[in-house]
Structure formats: C-alpha cells, structure tokens
Amino acid sequence: MKSSLPDELRAQPVPRDLKEAWDRAAARLGPFAGQLHCFSTVTSTNDLALRLADAGAKEGTTLLAETQTAGRGRRGREWFSPPGSGIYVSVILRPFHAEGPPPAATWLTALITLAAGVGLAEGVRASTALPVELKWPNDLVFERRKLGGILTELATTGAEGPVVVLGIGINVRATSYPPELAATATSIETELGRPIDRALVLVETLGALAARYEDLRAGRVDAILTAWRALARSLPGAAIEWDGPAGIVRGYALDIDSDGALLARTDDGVARLVAGEVRWR
What we know:
Elements lengths: L15 H9 L11 E7 L2 H10 L7 E7 L17 E8 L11 H24 L4 E3 L3 E4 L2 E14 L2 E11 L16 H5 L5 H20 L3 H10 L8 E6 L2 E10 L5 E5 L2 E5 L5 E2 L1
Parallel strand pairs: 1-2
Antiparallel strand pairs: 2-3, 3-7, 4-5, 5-6, 6-7, 8-9, 8-12, 9-10, 10-11
Helix pairs in contact: 1-5, 3-5, 3-6
C-alpha cells in the first residue's frame, strides 16, 4: 500500500496480519481499499484526518493508530486510547451527490453517523459473534455498557459539498479504565472471555461501513434506518434522560425519524432530539 501522505507524516509498514486480512477483503472495502496508513502514536486520528482532508486527501484515506495521546469523543470528551488495547481509526469521506445541490452538512453528518453505527455493529457481530447493539446517536454497547463509539466531524465544505471525517474507536482488549469510565465501559474480549483478531474486526467493520456508505450515497436511507432500528433493540420504550435548556428532561424513547433524530415521549408530548447525550435511567 503506497503512502500518499505528506513526507513529514511517516506511516509505519502495515502489520503482516492486517495486510493479509485487508487484501482478502479488498473487493468489499470500497473506497477504503488500498488507502490504509498505520501509525504507532498520534495525538488523534481524527485531527490528522481533518488536516489531510483540508489538504485534499482522497476519499477513503484511512488512518489507523496503535494509541492516541489526545483521542477525542463527542462533546469534547477524551477517548481513552491505551496502546494495543483498541482500534482507533479515522476515514475521509467525500459524499457529495453527482447531480443536484450539495446536501446540507448537518443532515449528512447525522446520517453518516447512523450508517457508520450500523456498519460498526455489523462488523463487530460478523467478526466476533458478540451481539452488540446501538445506542443513539453514536455508541456501540453490550448490555448497556459502551465498547465503541463514533465521532463524525465536518472537514470542509466546497462546491462539491461537505467533506467528512469519520472516527471510530473500539475497545478490544481487557484493560483498566479510569474511575469515571469503569462502571460504564467494557471491551469485546472482556465480554467474550477469549482473545479475538483485531485485524479481522477492523476489516469486517470497514467492509460493512463501505456497504452502508454506498446505501447512503445511492439514496437508500430507509435501508440504513431499518438496519439501525434492528440493531437498537433496547431503544423503544427505554427510560432515558438528557440535558435540556432548563435542566434534566426525562422521558421514554420511541423511535428515530427519517433524518436520524431521536423521538422521545415526555410529560409535555413528543420531543425531537437532534444532538446531545442521552442517558439510560
């Protein structure tokens, strides 16, 4: 895999097991095929991808790090990224439409987040058989404990529409989490009680993501929403809460709408949430 990165960004050789898995799956990787760049340590794969996207990097450019010193989650939170224990990857997407006006960036990033969630869950299930689920808007969970997440960020918007960086973090190995995460975080190997192949998890996840991204670009939004609902079995009827302008709001989850917003029943009627953190209660 020949590097197309600037000279100052020296990627490491792709590990043999990952290259072999990647080559076997090349036909299913869509825009990601042939564009994998591996690093030992970065501050954040998303930060690096944003920089490269703004410099014109190709769609499908994929950055994988063994560890992040300043990994980021949603709402400015740190993503715990200890060496060798997880998968920390970011990809560059240029999902403009060939015809018609560019899509609205906020609508597009919301749907990319949902499509990526479906791909993430499908990839983990296919590679490990662990029956993971999705939690709105961007969490991968098992029995309500988080083992993966998605960070979707707008890189640039030009005549061809928005350029998006999609970051994915997956907790793979058992590790000691910081006190603030210990009660809510888990890993694939912790739940399975056995080792798994990280290369296979990554490749299956990106293969599933490529398929769902193609659904999105082809306008098959209903297929993404249907798959998302099927992977969020704990959503309908779940007691949830979130931070509203006047304080904590409590309600019951109902569904997601065609734009990917969460619908929830409250004492005042149906609330439509387009962003923010939802907590189970």
